[in-house]
Amino acid sequence: MVSTWEDFYAKHPPPQDLAQNEQALKEFTRKHLEAGNKVVLVTSGGTTVPLEHNTVRFVDNFSAGTRGSVSAEYFLEYGYAVIFMYRVKSLEPFSRHFIGQKFLDLLQVSNNNENSVITVLPEYTQKVATVLRKYREAFNKKKLLQLTFTTFSEYLWLLRSACQALAPLENKAILYLAAAVSDFYIPSNEMSIHKISSSGPPTISLQLVPKILAPLVSLWVPKAFVVSFKLETDESLLISKARTALNKYHHNLVIANMLQTRKQQVIIVSKETNYVLSLTNEQLDNGEEIEQLIVRDLIEKHIK
Ligand code: 9Z3
């Protein structure tokens, strides 16, 4: 059974930090509306589906948040203000360059009298300085607002609030929906309160999620430029599924990608046409990013 989107919001309580996030959204969009700036909402990372109210276990997906975090940086570079709505602990713009071991490998430690001095290795200084400058500029100029979600329900509540804040921007609002959103969930009233017992094999029944693109396009931000993503693992379905989504929701573009090749190739699907954007192996090895091609293509060819 598929619940309707109205049903979903009626039956699932809003996250605790929603009012605070709505305030931040309101201030951000008002400032950029007054300044005449375009604002893009980038969603990024995967949603979880909890199996219990007191959540010990949940269903998750593979998304690392690369597509969203890299694209957000390029939108900023092209002068857009960015609302970056991302899964807690997934990749974020700018800090993504310095995560895990990569971060420690940039540093060296020496001694100055009694004190340890930590510096960036000379061969990395330029790169760190470039990223750091862009990061500071984005925040100092208040061009970047970051908001988080974890569960599918938190994502849906935050998405609707973000749309409500973006609506006054009309066609100066762009939605770039790169988050990997669960197709199935357990409704709140069917979820176990406590940790599912391991005394026997559990029976877990998932439902189809309400298709949120429908109200988003027709009611919440009808004048915005909306880009959704379609992920498949079977190439023979990719274009037809992307086209079905466009015909059903009447938004502007679908960016279709395969799980296995998503960092190297995407297909831009519009009502009229579809074409491939791709990087050669050499470009990929040199650190070029397909998101730069995607964002440039959108800005040059599609967003008016
Ligand atoms: C995508 O297809 C993204 O490009 C990826 C990016 C999730 C593949 P990573 O974060 O991966 O860089 O590791 N996102 C959209 C997937 C999705 O859930 N689409 C839904 C659908 O196809 C709704 S818009 O129905």
Automatic annotation (TrEMBL):
Any one GO biological process: coenzyme A biosynthetic process
Gene Ontology molecular functions: catalytic activity
Gene3D superfamilies: CoaB-like
Residue intervals of the DNA/pantothenate metabolism flavoprotein C-terminal domain: 168-282
Domain of life, per lineage: Eukaryota
Family indicated by similarity: Belongs to the PPC synthetase family.
PANTHER family registered for this protein in UniProt: CORNICHON-RELATED (PTHR12290)
Protein name per the record: DNA/pantothenate metabolism flavoprotein C-terminal domain-containing protein
Gene expressing this chain: 105623733
